[in-house]
Amino acid sequence: MVGRIKLCALLTFVYFLTLAKCDLGTDLAARIAPDTSPDVQEDAAKQLIQRVIGLRASQWFQVEVNKILDPSSYQITRLDNGKVLITGSNGVSVCKGFHYYLKYVLKKDFDWYKTHIELPEDWDPPNVTHRSKSSSPLIYYQNPCIWSYSFVWWQFDEWRRHIDWMAMMGINLVIAPNQEAIWQDVYTELGLTPQEIEAHFAGPAFQAWQRMGNLRSWGGPLPPAHRQLQQLLQQRILAAQRELGMSVALPAFGGYVPTAMRRVFPNASLTQSDRWNDFPDPYCCVLFVEPQDPLFQQVGAMFLRRVIQVYGSNHIYFSDPFNEMMPRVPEPNYVRYTAKAIYNSMQVVDADAVWLLQGWMFLKSVYWTNDLIEAYLTAVPRGRILALDLQSEQFPQYERTHSYYGQPFVWCMLNNFGGNLGLFGSAQLIPSGIIAARSMPNSSMVGVGITPEGIGQNYALFALTLEQGWSQDELQLEEWFEYFALTRYGVNDTRLTQVWQLLRNSVYAFQGRERMRGKYTLNKRPSLHHYPWVWYNVTMVYEAWRLMLEAKDTVPLNDNRRAIYEHDLVDITRQYLQLSFDRFYVNLKSAYRSKQLNRVEYLAGKLLELFADMERILASGEHYLLGNWLEAAKRLAPSEEQRPIYEFNARNQLTSWGPNYQVPDYATKQWSGLMSDYFQPRWNMFLEAVTQALRTHTSFNYSEFKQRVENEIELPFGNHTKAYPTSPVGSTWNISHDIYEKWNAYARDTLFLNYCQIAVKVAQSQKSGENEW
């Protein structure tokens, strides 16, 4: 009897714990949901459907927003008049149902680049009934850095397409970080001069880090007109998102202020922030208002009131005071008081405030000990912090923090840093990780999200994460990737199916703890101390490339599916050339150490040939062009006179990232134009120096090379004004096929095989370090 009583008690506890978890997520989603009327959300969903499939086809769909339905749910039925009715709990749920219909009924899909889908003239809607409810009350998207690495030059046309994509993927929570025009008013009211304010704001490509207190003024001055125009753009974006039922988190005060605040408030408790990535004066550092000082609450409340006045509110606000910055005092009481101060500055303005917090800082486990994390998170009432577990697929913090000490959290996949290219990821860890986090004891997980620093690569992994976030059951990867290939290209071709299974089992099969980002030798400043590594059989990428080429005739020529096929063909060709570069480089290092001059000269020639081929294939792809990035930056400038500073911002972020190589090559891209005029010249200078050292029987002088490459190539590139093509050049398939035949022939060549005996090293134990120079 006693045993039964204990069992009943345990089951009752688990039952109410599960209910509490469900209520936590549902209540939180309801608390921050916009108050947009069902009629407005229905109209927004209708317009989205019309944009995606056109006016004629959209007439076959009816939509209804019914708030009586379960939160984040939809149902699809066919009416007696033959039309398809999609009913959802809000506009986002309707759009998610529309996406389901496109993908799983019509076998057509979209991505970041393809948001228009063509339906046949004689299309007749199939008779389908389907219901679905999200297993995650919150589906989150964005990262503060993505606004500088990907969105920085966007205007509303790009945003309109992207918001459509977000809604169809079921995303219901995002951020809106634009705040400079508001701070200009706040700082002016506090007594700062226009010159002091200008000296604080960073340039457009670096605002994400100015907002988080990492730097100041770099890339500036920021034109006042830019601040106003960006605020107007943010208002349009917010209106479009809320019309669909999305919740938007707005910026709150994190403690950082301009250095000129010392003049205005000489008696305030202000301390200098950490020096982030060795940024020199006058680009570092800013001041931090100590949380016990009344100025903290004064500035925080003043700022948030103006934010709400300008942007409205969904009662959720983000603040990340310690992004790659350490609290001044590593003690529980200090971080507890800081967290309370931040939240109080929100709550005094909005009694229903929820604090959206990135858990990224907790990765610094040497500093952020468990007692510090607990003090920080529990300083705020349970349910009033929503933590983003920013890189759950590789470095989850929810286990270490015991489910964020009861605060609700979102399981997030990050995967990308700096927006750089390269096929990689941990597909197997996504479905299993999400399911495990949901079901772990005392889990406070309330959502799933994607948090890349940049977009434009590895779309499959982000789509997989968002779909698993909605699904209750664990997605089966083989089946999911097979269907992904079918709907991506719109044709049922076994070769294209095999392509994605090969990628799933190679580039997307990483399961370790090694940081994958930036491990591309050809993108790095040349050195004899790089250690390229791969975790998969490279021949699988080569086979995927061959199959992509063979499938050419199955994808219609005059169709947007063809554009997706060619985009992927560029990407796979680029990946193989990148891997080939690594192999040649490893052999070149070996030849140099053995003082084999002829071999070094041969391999140096092959490396430069790879650059030329990389430039050719990238130039054929619409989304691999430096010209588009630069021209978008210049178009955003408020006046012709200000275009040079916008172009400098665009160039510097991709290359030196700072006044003197502070965050070098972090946000670089494998783009046409960069390949020919930045990466190749660096390697050409390096290879000449290495070869000359062997010829003269001297050692390669890296210090001398470093100074030359900085002064002659790297730093000057930011000030160049050369214009680059904004349209593709050449036939992607023809160029890719030519490159395939060329390197396939080399692969059969005995001399080449002798030079490629040394495999690319898996550098788990051999690292050169990110800052080896």
TrEMBL record:
Residue ranges annotated for the Alpha-N-acetylglucosaminidase tim-barrel domain, each copy included:
140-472
Top-level taxonomic group: Eukaryota
Where the record annotates domain Alpha-N-acetylglucosaminidase N-terminal, the positions are 44-122
Q: Please list the residue ranges annotated as the Alpha-N-acetylglucosaminidase C-terminal domain.
A: 480-742
Going by the UniProt record, its keywords in alphabetical order are:
Hydrolase, Signal
Q: Which residues form the signal peptide?
A: 1-22
PANTHER family per the UniProt record, alphabetical: ALPHA-N-ACETYLGLUCOSAMINIDASE
**What is the name attached to this protein's record?**
Alpha-N-acetylglucosaminidase
Q: Which organism is it from?
A: Drosophila arizonae (Fruit fly)
Q: Which gene encodes it?
A: LOC108611004
